[in-house]
Amino acid sequence: MDERIAQLEAELAAARREMQDFSYTVSHDLRAPLRHIAAYAQLVQEDAGPLLSAEVQGFLGTITDAAKHMGVMLDALLELSRVGTAPVQRKPVALQDVLHAVMESLGAQQAQREVRWSIAPNAPVVQADAALLRLALEQVLGNALKFTGPRALAEIAISAELLDGAVRLTVQDNGVGFNPEQSEKLFQPFVRLHSTRQFEGLGMGLALTRKALQRMGGDVAIGAGVDAGCCVTITLPTA
Question: What whole-number distance in Å separates Cα of residue 26 and Cα of residue 173?
């Protein structure tokens, strides 16, 4: 048994080193050619812009926009990598306090909208890493706000219940929803079920959420219907 534990610890350390190497490659080696693409496209626009047709100028604009978008995607991959490798410090965290803090922060960013929040007053204390928990809740509640955007009145209800050694947190909204057969795809990086014209974002939020929760011994599931809202269920260990 001791040998098996030592072997698993060695494999885990090796996996972390590989992830750190990947993060370095993303943050340094891939960014250099990306910067060159954006910089030289901009130089061509500045120096030869008046001599180019409108179509060619459009091509250069597309190159610049694509380079910027790839930079944002690299940032998202780095964040996912950090969530997967950062040290986890689990301790008792008041779920109610974190929920209210995230709700107030997100609400302040969209103060012009009419949003009806409903938070059950009995959310218990959970065993979690405070930073990872806040990250996960920011993604889930942020999605609820985003996908209720077309509604005149956004309704987001949050409830919590104690299970056997765990807490189940449910976030229900009245947003646009999606085809429930595609639920599991949403936890993959960069997967989107709506066009960028409808809703902004990279499609990374639920991948970050699952990674953060699993590192704390929890998990997340999602259900929805087309134009029938969305329900996200989070499970976390009790304190």
Answer: 36
Task: For 107-119, write each residue's pLDDT tens digit.
Answer: 888 888 999 999 9
> What are the backbone dihedrals phi and psi of residue 75, each rounded to the nearest 5 degrees, phi first?
-60, -40
Query: What is the pTM (predicted TM-score) of this model?
Result: 0.83
Q: Where are the alpha helices (DSSP H) in the chain?
A: 2-24, 31-48, 54-85, 95-109, 130-147, 205-215
Tokens for 84? 């997967």
Q: Spell out the domains of the chain, with CATH numbers in brackets.
A: 2-85 (1.10.287), 91-237 (3.30.565.10)
What would you report as the CA-atom Rg of the chain, rounded to the nearest whole angstrom? Answer: 21
Range 42-71 burial, b when 16+ CB lie within 10 A, else e: eebbeeeeeeeeeeebeebeebbeebeeee
Question: How far apart, in whole angstroms, are the C-alpha atoms of residue 125 and residue 237?
Answer: 9
Q: Render pLDDT for 68-78 as a digit per residue (tens, 0 to 9).
A: 888 888 888 88
Beta-carbon-side half-sphere exposure of residue 14 (alpha carbons within 13 Å): 6
Using a 10 angstrom Cβ sphere, with 0-12 exposed, 13-18 middle and 19 or more buried, the burial of residue 132 is buried
**CA–CA dist 127, 216 (Å, integer):** 8
Q: Which residues pair with 234 in a beta bridge?
A: 169, 220
